[in-house]
Design goal:
heterodimer; A: 223 residues; mainly alpha; MetI-like fold; 9 helices; 82% helix; B: 248 residues; Rossmann fold; 6-stranded mixed beta sheet; 10 strands
């Protein structure tokens, strides 16, 4: 009985729900924006890494390696607490979004690259022999096929970004986790934390299932 | 070697190395507009490399290749060269993400600036010409090899090229599908378009070729008319090659 009252206190949950939903909304917004920016930035990085002049290629490789090695939390704390010393003061939301998107783009760049490299050379040659410009070769022939291949790993990466949004509570962003700890302090009861965990699961479990479905579907179609 | 005035393709001293392997050695070749030239020779003799140098899918290390008077090289002129040269590949290389119709329409839309509607109308006509209009809405993966290769030919024709390059167009086909593809190619020969073909179909080569170019070890060893080549070649290597392919 006391365990139920402590961790699954319905009264506390109902009272903290508005706070939690506010946090959830902010978490979804932060996650979606970071994922979108990471997907776009990663594609640009992958193309630079594969086709740009050599010095730019090296820059892309350096960026990708550094942001894959750097812990997200460390990078986030630097953006929020160290950048102001350079005269760049970002809001908690902007800091978190920047930190998550920069790291995510490093990962997605590698995913896109693998996808592009999996496209047979004959596809590039056929497109070139028709006289298509490099941009059209990518847009019409290579990327539609490459992105199809990498949808499962890209979705996987998106799940990771969504989970990493919880780190934003460290820079005082009132996201789902921050609101939950707030509500827990107010109610002197940990039920809101359990509520937050359930909300995280509610948005992420379907995505995890989706990846499994994708993987099955595309496996059957491997050429 | 014979020099043709105003050739549409001119190759002079063309060489290509892969590491220590010389795929092409000092190749000179002129092709006149409207001419059908068939490249023959044992595998590894450089036929495919030669044909791929014409539209710069393969970079050559030495010499010069001109198409319509324009040097084939990396740079702004290359797109122009490629717009004048259609290519048909051994493994078809159709775009699996697009319908058959759009495979053919894509080039005219992106390169010639046609609307999709106009390009698809044109593509339909071409698909009719190669006998597969009924497959227009399907995806390449749903077609047989012979049908796919005919789409490949329609795709090349859609750009209205002055030159068609065929790189072993029937080598990846099941035997029963070779005929339908050769039939289409035969109908294009002597239609005014210049053709350079790499093939192992000897009877076909003899029928369609204005000239046979025999290659071995990266070099052109003989250039002659089909009649001379198939019945009266004096070149020892060509003789040996013909004996090997005709009497197996």
């Amino acid at each position: 009985m006391s365990i139920v009252n402590t961790f699954f206190n319905l009264d506390v949950l109902v009272r903290s729900l508005p706070l939690l939903l506010q946090g959830l909304w902010r978490t979804i917004l932060l996650g979606a924006l970071s994922i979108a920016l990471g997907l776009v930035g990663g594609l640009a990085l992958a193309l630079v890494r594969l086709y740009a002049p050599r010095w730019l290629r090296w820059l892309a490789v350096a960026y990708i390696d550094v942001f894959r090695a750097l812990p997200v939390l460390v990078w986030l704390v630097i953006v929020y607490y160290a950048f102001p010393f350079l005269g760049v003061s970002l809001s908690p939301f902007a800091s978190a979004c920047l930190a998550l998107a920069t790291v995510s783009s490093a990962y997605t760049a590698e995913i896109y690259r693998a996808g592009i490299e999996a496209i047979p050379r004959g596809q590039f040659e056929a497109a070139q022999s028709v006289g298509l410009r490099p941009f059209d070769v990518m847009r019409d022939v290579v990327l539609p096929q490459a992105i199809r291949i990498v949808i499962p790993p890209l979705t996987n990466n998106s799940i990771n970004v969504m989970k990493d949004t919880a780190l934003a509570s460290v820079v005082a962003l009132p996201d789902l986790l921050k609101q939950a700890t707030q509500a827990q302090a107010l109610a002197a009861n940990p039920t809101p934390l359990i509520g937050a965990a359930v909300l995280y699961l509610l948005i992420l479990l379907p995505l995890v299932r989706l990846v499994a479905r994708f993987e099955k579907r595309y496996q059957g179609r491997a050429r | 070697m014979s020099t043709i005035p105003n050739p549409i393709i001119r190759m002079r001293g063309v060489g290509r190395r892969f590491g220590t392997f010389e795929a092409l050695r000092n190749v000179d070749l002129d092709v006149a507009a409207g001419e059908v030239v068939v490249l023959l020779g044992p595998s590894g003799s450089g036929k495919s490399t030669l044909i791929r140098c014409i539209n710069h899918l393969e970079e050559y290390d030495s010499g010069d290749v001109f198409v319509g008077g324009v040097r084939v090289e990396r740079g702004p002129n290359l797109l122009k060269v490629r717009q004048q040269t259609g290519m048909v590949f051994q493994s078809f290389n159709l775009f699996p993400n697009q319908t058959v119709l759009d495979n053919v329409a894509l080039g005219p839309v992106r390169v010639k600036g046609l609307t999709w509607e106009a390009a698809r109308t044109k593509a339909r006509t071409l698909l009719e010409r190669v006998g597969i209009a009924s497959q227009a809405e399907k995806y390449p993966g749903q077609l047989s090899g012979g049908q796919q290769q005919r789409v490949g030919i329609a795709r090349a024709l859609a750009m209205e090229p002055r030159i068609l390059l065929f790189d072993e167009p029937t080598s990846a086909l099941d035997p029963e599908m070779v005929g339908e593809v050769l039939q289409v190619i035969r109908s294009l020969a002597h239609s005014g378009v210049t053709m350079v073909l790499v093939t192992h179909e000897m009877g076909f080569a003899r029928q369609v070729a204005d000239r046979i170019v025999f290659m071995e070890a990266g070099e052109i060893r003989e250039v002659s008319t089909p009649d001379v080549f198939f019945s009266a070649t004096t070149n020892e290597r060509a003789r040996a090659f013909l004996d090997a392919v005709l009497n197996h």
